[in-house]
Known about the structure:
By secondary structure, the protein is of the alpha/beta class. The protein has helices spanning 19-31, 49-59, 90-98, 115-121, 137-151, 157-170, 194-199, 223-232, 250-263, 284-299, 305-308, 315-327; strands at residues 2-8, 39-44, 63-67, 69-70, 76-79, 85-88, 106-110, 127-131, 179-183. 39% of the residues lie in helices and 13% in strands. The termini are far apart.
Amino acid sequence: MKKILILSANPRNTSKLRLDEEVREIQAGLERAKSRDDFEIIVRWAVRPDDFRRALLDHEPQIVQFSGHGLAEDGLALENATGQIQLVSTESLARLFELFKDKIECVLLNTCYSEAQAEAIHQHVNCVIGINQEIGDTAAIKFVVGFYDALGTNRSYEEAYKFGCNAIDLDGIPESSNPVLKSRNNNRFNPASEEHNRHCLIHPLENPEGSVPLKSPFYVNIPTIESDCANEILKSGALIRVKAPPQWGKTSLMVRILHHARQQGYQTTSINFFSADNDSFANLDKFLQWFCLSITDELDIENKLFDYWKASKPQKNNCTNYFQQYILEGAFENDTRSHLKK
């Protein structure tokens, strides 16, 4: 019997995550697995630092998963007594897991920007999975479902990691390379093999396409550009356009601009125009509605589009009113989960 301890935290002053759905999908997957009797799932919600330590002591799990918010080098976001953020540093986490190095077999940090914590914990635990940059709720849930589906059929942790990445990929989500594996079981995966290079299971070198993680040694920092962008986003109504040749690093720069914004207390969203239907671009009204709804969904606030969308008004006015009167003014006035800066 392997014990799976799932610890989650979603402090009130952070964006809302679908943590209950994530746990439900994991439980449902293991319940239908052929080896379901080999696993026991223990779940702890709204975890504080003391809860984290006590849960490890009480249950002595072989698999530990943390789901919630990660803040890169600053650590993981747990909760304090009032439900607000309490950061736990990377060093503190590593020291805690060192005390359980003979018990814990695998740690899964299903949070954005948790690669630094995964690397530190990997000093004491053979198999650790973290996320190298931002990851959406859907991709995060798909990954753990694929991971535990594979464990439920007696696959190794390394193979389960591969199935988790593939679950994201099969769903057409472009985040399958965001989870990263730290493993000492290299006999199963040869970094020089064709299999490794094709699936990026344990990657000493990063994929040259797409964005690179915040701490990547391959990112070429241009201080004047980053500092200009960092100063510009502090201005109300700022607009930054990045135009450069392919492979210049535009997406990587955007990741760093958004990270800097979050460090300043801003709520951020990332919209991919490739996800819109082609006919949306042929109709201004349809495009603006799609754009407004995308922002609403990313911020996880109630959809009130048609309270502000009036057929008698120009479409651009409707869009402006929705942003100014609802998203930027009214939507978060009584929402204690967020501390938006406009």
